[in-house]
Amino acid sequence: MSRIDFKNVCKQYAPGLALTINNANLAIGQGDFCVFVGPSGCGKSTLLRMVAGLESITSGDISIADKRVNDLPPAKRGVAMVFQSYALYPHMTVAQNMAFGLQVMGADKAEIERKVKKAADILQLGALLDRLPKALSGGQRQRVAIGRAIVKEPDVFLFDEPLSNLDAALRVQTRLEIAKLHHDIGRSSMIYVTHDQVEAMTLADKIVLLRAGKGVQEEGSVAQFGTPMDLYHRPQNLFVAEFIGSPKMNVMPGKLVRAEPEHAVVEVHGEQITVAVDARGTAAGSPISIGIRPEHLLAGEDGEGCKVHVKLRQMERLGDESLLYMDIAPDAPLVTLRLEGHAMQASGEAITLRLRAEHCHLFDAAGKAFRRTPKLPA
Ligand SMILES: Nc1ncnc2c1ncn2[C@@H]1O[C@H](COP(=O)(O)OP(=O)(O)O)[C@@H](O)[C@H]1O
Ligand SMILES: [Mg+2]
Questions:
Q1: Residue 95: CB within 6 Å of ligand 1?
Q2: Which residue of 3, 20, 206, 246 has the fewest C-beta atoms within 10 A of its own C-beta?
Q3: How far is CA 175 from the centre of its chain?
């Protein structure tokens, strides 16, 4: 009942300006938790506000439950939105804040009470119903703001960076609550905007990664639409590869030596490395980029993988893991290695890195990924 479809959706704020959203094509299934993520200014809020009806659609169509909503006013779309700044009415109690929207819509008293109680149960606000917002913590206020959306029993929940104003610990806790909320009211679809790739990875069934800048006009706004594991294991381009994952993927320039059906051999800083991708169709000698995540690099002379010799520049110890930043060649970006536990290496030490073929990604000169050939998690 609450599929959301985007067909060739574009947004241009004014004639003569570049497109803010270019050609978004998405199908969000009923009950899906979909996250719009991307760098600041890439148009996440714009796209969300077009679903809500708070922003006009320049061209293309958005439909909710197979009904085109381009010209429907916000109140008729079956959506409820939660914003980053959860402005509650300061003179109203928690219960009154949650009831207000329903009163405006003319709901009867018993129905309002039932819906407020249900929302309060879901959000564990039952004990706070008579409090004023000033007597609540930031996290509790944000839960009230979510409660105001829940009482409307919308088909679609829209969240615009709802956790940005909370401190780190509370963000994690509220993130878990939002995941539980989605589970508890599974029939509603959710679209959730964040610039934080960890929130995107942990909450989403499907991620829409939006790009910003020049690429938007040439290639469209959507850099990739897929499951979190798709974006992590099968990034379709360099932008996605570098946006998802922290610390970000190491990317090194090189050239293709030869391409076989199941693997390719590439040269990087004078070393030959085997990569499990299908790069057939690309000429030997073509420039490429090889990518490998810090958590997939191995260290030490012994064991599987193609060897690369580097020097340790700097190290960060986090207790449970250590991040090693290494020079691979003069003027090349540092290579990051993530090791479990407490690394003992010293600055300046020579280290041998090993790259296993099935952990490597390969991109052509335009940044498009070659298909990876190993069996990867779905
Ligand atoms: N009302 C507006 N008029 C003109 N440009 C706007 C307007 N609102 C947003 N923009 C521009 O559109 C781009 C995307 O904004 P926004 O959707 O808020 O990005 P995000 O939420 O991803 O940070 C930005 O460059 C922003 O300056
Ligand atoms: Mg925004």
A1: no
A2: 246
A3: 13
